[in-house]
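for the writeup, i need someone to sanity check this before i put it in the appendix. the sequnce is what the collaborator sent (i think, or maybe the updated version? ugh). structure was predicted straight from it, no edits. if anything looks off just tell me and ill rerun, i have time this weekend
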Amino acid sequence: MNLSRLRAFDMVVRTGSFTAAARALHVSQPAVTNHIRALEDDYGVALFRRRGRGVEPNELGRALADLSRRLFTLEEEATDLLQSSKALRRGTLCIAADGPYLLIPLVAAFRKGFPRVRVRLTIVNTRDVQEALISERCDVAIHAQLDNDERLFVKRLSNYDIIVFVSIDHPWALAGRRSVPVGELHAAPVILREPGSSTRRLFERVCARAGVQPDYVIETTSRETVKEAVAAGLGIGVISEAELREDPRFWPLKVEGADLEYSECVVCLHRKRNLRLLKEFFSLVETLGDAVVP
C-alpha cells in the first residue's frame, strides 16, 4: 500500500473535492488526481462517483475511508504525543535512587516546573541503581558516585560524609563525644547496609586502608532497619550524614583519621543526555546545586 496515495484518497473524502484536497495537502490538483487514479488502477477498483462539482466515495470508498480515517487519526495523535512530550506537557521521567532524602526535593522542584510530567521512582542500593541505568530501566539515577564509567554522564549534586551513630544511652553518647578514631571501630559491633550499598563500600574501603576490621553483627537492605537496630542498642550504625535526620534516639559521631567524604551525583547515559526531559532535569540540578540538602 502506497501511503501517499491513501493519504490523497483520505483527504479527498474529507474535503469532498480534488481541488480542496490538493490545497490541504499543499500539492497540485493533478498530483492528487494522479494519486487517486494510481490507487484505483493498482487494485482494479473505482472509489468515487461524481456529485455535482464534487465527488463522494462509493460503497467501497466509504469502507476504505473508515480505515484510512482511523490510520491517519492515529498518526495525528502520535504527532501530538511527541510534540507534547517535546514541550513537556506530558511524559514520564523514571528515576532510580539509593535513597529518598535527596531525591524528593529534586522531584518536588521538577514537578513545580512540569506538573503534567509523571515521575516514577525506584529506591534500591547503588549497585542496582547503576544496573537499572545501564539496562535502561530508568532514565536518570541519583546515587553516590564511587566508580568512573565512560558510558555515563555525571553531574555532582553535593558532597557528604559517612558518619557513625549510636543510641542515646551508648557510652559514647553519655560522654558527649563528637567523634571517634577509626581505630576504635576495630572489632566493634557494627550494623550497616548490604554489600551493594555505597555507604558500605566506602566504609569498608576506608577500614581496610586503616587495618580496621569491625564486627558486622547485622546486615540489612533497609536504612530504617539500621536505625531501629541502633535505637535498640544492638550496635553502631553507619550512614550518610544526609540520611540520619533529626532523631532524639541517636547520637552522631564523625570518624577521625578516615576520609569518608563522597559525592551524591545525578547520572544518565551519555547518549541520552540531550533528551528534553533529561536536559530539564539536569538544568534543575545545576540551578539547585548544594541547596538540595535534607
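The chain has a mean pLDDT of 89. The chain has three domains: 3-86, 92-157+263-291, 161-262.
thx in advance!!
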